[in-house]
Amino acid sequence: MPPSSPESPATAEAPVTALTVSVKTLCAFAAKAGDLDLRFVPVPSAQEGQGGHRLVQNRRGPAYESEVILAAAFDRLTVRGRADGYDPHRRRVEEIKTFRGDFAAIKSNHRALHWAQAKTYAWMLCEREQLQRLGVALVYLDLDSEEETVLEETCTRDELRTHFETLCGRFLAWAAQEAKHRTDIDHALAALAFPHGEFRPGQRDLAEAVYRAAASDRCLLAQAPTGIGKTVATLFPLLKARPAQKLDKVFFLTAKTSGRGVALDALRTLDRDRAPLRVLELAAREKACEHPGRACNGDACPLARGFYDRLPAARGEAVQAGWLDRIELRRIALQHEVCPYYLAQELVRWSDVIVGDYNYYFDGSAFLFALTKEEDWRVALLVDEAHNLLDRARGMYSAELASAAIDGVTEKAPVPIRKALRNLDREWRLLQREQVAAYEARDEIPEPFARALLDAVAVMAEHFTAHPDEPLGPLQQCFFDVLRFARLVDSFARHSVFECTQGPEGARMLVIRNLVPAPFLAGRFDACASATCFSGTLAPFSFYRDTLGLPDDTATLDVDSPFRSEQLTVRVAMDVSTRFRDRPRSLATLVDIVAEQFAQRPGNYLAFFSSFDYLADASAAFADRHPDVPTWAQSRGMREADRDAFLARFAPGGQGIGFAVLGGAFGEGIDLPGDRLVGAFVASLGLPQHNEPNEVMRERMDALFGDGYEYTYVYPGLQKVVQAAGRVIRTETDAGVLYLLDDRFARQEIRALLPAWWRVQPMFASEVGAAPSGGPPDLAQPGR
User: Fold this and answer.
1) Which of 332, 350, 681, 692 has the highest CB neighbour number within 10 Å of its CB?
2) What PANTHER family does the annotation carry (predicted)?
3) Would 782 be classed as within a structural domain?
4) CA dist., res. 45 & res. 98, Å (int)
5) What is the pLDDT of residue 116?
6) Closest CA to 264 of 278, 249, 279, 251
7) How confident is the model at residue 19 (pLDDT cuts 50, 70, 90)?
8) Mean pLDDT on 271-296
């Protein structure tokens, strides 16, 4: 049913039913107590943990049952889970845990939680097998030595029943509350009307495509112009689809903090009295931390001390509040003296819409993805400004090692670590012994170096396991760098390249640079019920489908622009070249074009350049030739206050030119409607530099997809251009001018990648200010 229909049938009235809950969630809710304790102890990766489970399971006899699916009920509560193993001959259920280092370092409250899980599975097996008693074992496997430490109890049927019913009793009131909330939300969403009454042009097309994707469990790539209200047009249909599609969560994922704010504003427009959603905002740990510099344990931080003892009251107030943006969440957390950051993580289980950064779902250690898999949730993703996901994901699956960081800690490190790091350095030097050039790219990582790397990880992990209270310092940071690098060595393949660089004074750097994150992200898209990736610039769709790992049956939508070509005068400077070799010769002509347009129509303009160096040259040349025109410029590493001051110069009725870098903070995500911005100049195609790393990428892209030059240079460059140009026309009443200052913009293959509604017209420097054929929009009036 189209999402615009407020009369969609509501779910039939029903009594409050049981909430199905996992064993892990039940025990985490009802059996956790004491401090939050995140003292660093190296833990196995998910892959290593799974390997450890298989190792233990394979050691058992042929009758041994692995990954036993179990369920049991108490009153209206159904509990489901998967026991690691059951030995029917010994009548023993096993809960397997993997670790490294000292067994004694496993915290007592963690063991208590493990016992709670094991005994819950034991009760389920007693029920299934009609047993009167059962052995319950915790099997701890040291991954380094592959030795098992087994803790075992024999429990009677009555003891296990009492344990199970006690946990369920603690959870049952909460479960009834959650079941009622689910029913109420589904009824409200089925009757939810579009909050603005009528759709803007283009909004309905987008909303219906999102609804269809959710209804068919498909992914969607949607390109829709800025200004139509993409955020509400994607959230509304997905929430409408939730009851029928039995969605558990909606994850709204953004590239920037500003994107979270836009999403929260859109959610506020949905009538919360009729659809009382629980909305949770996830903020970065460094921004949410109340005691920076203190360790996350009860000995160091008062908000970690007794965290799980005070969590139930904080959790109860939070779900009643429902609206849990960063400010409200912090208020509740501090009122109950618990950590805001970790309270937010606990509340993910009980929230309907979670708004957070890409990394919470797409990163290698993303906890939203881990919870989705663990709880078997049906989640729908909304990936905002999805053109940013490619570069962000490349960073998530890249790592670097600097020789200086290792050299700086080796001599002061404990003897075992010193020996391992020296061995690593020796293999590193052998690896680069015959390297002559400053940069070299390889398709393979030498096995001796990989072994030395893993040895260093094991020795350092053992040290930090034995010294969990050691403060964070260079040695621990070195370990994190080595560990991250080692994990990517394990997954190294054609999607990445191994780069070796040599600098002055013997400086060396190794980088695993991801080029195509698709193999890592494909599983993330497979794990969700549906995903909509939307942006103002997703052309061509094949480029993003290939590089992001979206399924082959991903639907696509290119929403027509609501803007008219008459609103934007687009002119290509045919006698200007911004190629690197031509920049000195064309600079004077370029800045004169900018100045002459300003003289024709004084107002606020943005001028975009491909680099800070080019920006500085242009800004200086402009100031020298046209000193009477107000200008201001973006600088490297601008702080938030400086960025705000830059944007504040674009006041209504103002006059001046802001110089900015293409693809930077002012190239997208800023809104300057009306006469706050009347024009833009783009002095570059935005193509990445032709250098050795990018040429390596071009060759790899060509081998994988056959369009190496386009995938490496053209598509990423033009995406930045279109984003920057999109700052000019923000509403249907805006009008402005766009200058594309390079003759290459007139090429047919480049023009095909620009928005179809642009009417691009060639011009020459001598024509600046002359009306293009067809007549310009009336720029004498404010655009709003």
Assistant:
1) 681
2) DNA REPAIR DEAD HELICASE RAD3/XP-D SUBFAMILY MEMBER, REGULATOR OF TELOMERE ELONGATION HELICASE 1
3) no
4) 10
5) 96
6) 279
7) confident
8) 86
> For residue range 687-718, what is the model confidence (pLDDT) as tens digits?
999 999 999 999 999 999 999 999 999 999 99
Would you state the pLDDT for residue 11?
Answer: 37
* Whether 649 and 582 share a structural domain: yes
CATH number, domain containing residue 460: 1.10.275
Alpha-carbon distance 708 to 712, whole Å?
Answer: 6
Bridge partners of residue 737, in order along the sequence: 569, 679
Are residues 623 and 549 both part of a single domain?
A: no
Q: By three-state DSSP, how is residue 155 classified? A: strand
* Residue 408 and residue 538 in one domain: no
Q: Looking at 530, 558, 586, which one is the last position of a domain?
A: 558
Residue 35 shares a structural domain with residue 167: yes
pTM beyond 0.90: no
- From residue 741, how far is each of 153, 583, 607, 688, 764 by CA, in Å? 77, 11, 10, 17, 10
Provide the CATH number for the domain around residue 570: 3.40.50.300
Say yes or no: 488 and 580 in one domain. no
Q: What is the pLDDT of residues 191-223, one digit of tens each?
A: 888 988 889 888 999 999 999 999 999 999 999
Owning domain of residue 343: 197-395+519-558
For the record, the structure tokens of 662 come out as: 């293409």
Structure tokens at 344: 């937010």
pLDDT at 273 over 60: no
- Structural domains in the chain (count): 4
SS (H, E, C) 175-195: HHHHHHHHHHHHHHHHCCCCC
Task: Let me know if 435 is exposed, middle or buried by CB neighbors in 10 A (0-12, 13-18, 19+).
Answer: middle
